[in-house]
Amino acid sequence: MNTQTINVMLDPVDQALEVGLKDLWYPVCPSNFLKESPISLRRLGYKIALWRDNTGKVHALEDRCPHRGAPLSLGVILGDRIACPYHGVEVCTDGVAVRVPGSPGCKLEGSQATRRFHAVEAAGAIFLFNATDPFLAEAPPLRLPEQLTSPEWSNFLCYVEWAGDYRYVIDNVMDPMHGVYLHKQSHTMAEGENTAEFQIRDVPNGFIFEKKGQRDVNFDWTEWTDTGIHTMRLEIPYPKTGGPGGNFTIIGAFSPAEKNVTAVFFWRCRKVQGWQRDTWRFLYKNRLEKRHWDVLEQDRIAMENMEPDANQHEHLYAHDMGIVRLRRHMKKLAQAQLERQAASA
C-alpha cells in the first residue's frame, strides 16, 4: 500500500464520507426484508436491529444490548420493546432499558443506553435517519421525490448490493457519457452522439449535469438533490415499444453497507395512471425488466472491478465536471459535519 493511499484512509473527511454523512435519511433495505422476526443489517457504520411491532410499524436500534453487547436482533419482540435473548433485558424503541429482569431497580434500568434510529417505511423501502445525536427525540420529515410519492406516478423498486464504495456508484450515475459506451447495446441507450459538451445548471436543492444540445435521445443528464436525503434522478427516452407514459425516470439512492459494500436502490418510474398504469406495469414485468437488469449488470461488473483507490489515479476531463462538482460538495458537507462535532465536544 503506497503512502498516498494510507493518507486517504486516515483523512477524517474521507472517513466521515465512507460511512455516510450524518443527519440525513438513507434507505437501508426493501420493505419485504422485514417480516415477523427481527433482522440485523450493517449500514452506515453500525450494526442495526430492525423489527415491526404488532401494528406493523418499523423500529430500529443499534444491534447491541446495553448490558453485555449481545445482539438484540436475536431477541423477542414485546410490542414497543425488544427483549435481549441473553439475559432478558428489555429495550424500548427509544433506546431506554425499561426492564432488567435479573436485577430489578439496577442503574441500567431506566437509562437511555442504546442508539436509536428513526425509521420510516415508504416507496417499498425502509429509511433510517443517521443522526449525530444517538438519542435524538424527533427526526425531520422524510422528503422523497414526487416520482415516489405522487399518485400520478407508478414505480418499481430495484434493489441490489454491489461490492465497492458507495461513492463509486454515485460517480457512475453522475456520468451520463458512459451510457453511450458501456450500454450501447441497450434498446434505450443505442442512440445519440458519442461525443458531447456538458454544462452544470443549478436547481433548488441541487444541480443538473447535462449534455448541451441533446435531450430525450440517450442518458443525457443527471440531477442530484439534497432534501434531507440525497437522491439522484435521470431519464431514459423509451421507444414506442416501451408503452405509455413518456420518458423512463430513474430515482437512485445509495447507502454504505458493510465495508466496501453498497446498498443500491433504483426506483424505475413512469408517469402513468388508470389503464395506462396497468398496461405499463404488465409490460414492464413481462418484457422490459430483464433488459434493465442486463444494463445494471454491466454497471455492476464495471464498479466491482475497480480498485478501491482508483480515484487516486484518475485523469479527469470535461465530461467529469459533474463528478468533480459533487465530490467537492460532499467534502464540504463532511468538513462542516466534523466542525459541528468538534464544537459540540
From TrEMBL:
CDD domains: Rieske_RO_Alpha_N. InterPro entries: Cholesterol_7-desaturase, Rieske_2Fe-2S, Rieske_2Fe-2S_sf, VanA_C_cat. Keywords: 2Fe-2S, Iron, Iron-sulfur, Metal-binding, Oxidoreductase. PROSITE patterns: RIESKE. The keyword Iron-sulfur applies. Coiled coil: none annotated. Transmembrane segments: none annotated. Residues 25-128 form the Rieske domain. Pfam families: Rieske (PF00355), VanA_C (PF19112). This is Rieske 2Fe-2S domain-containing protein. It comes from Hydrogenophaga atypica.
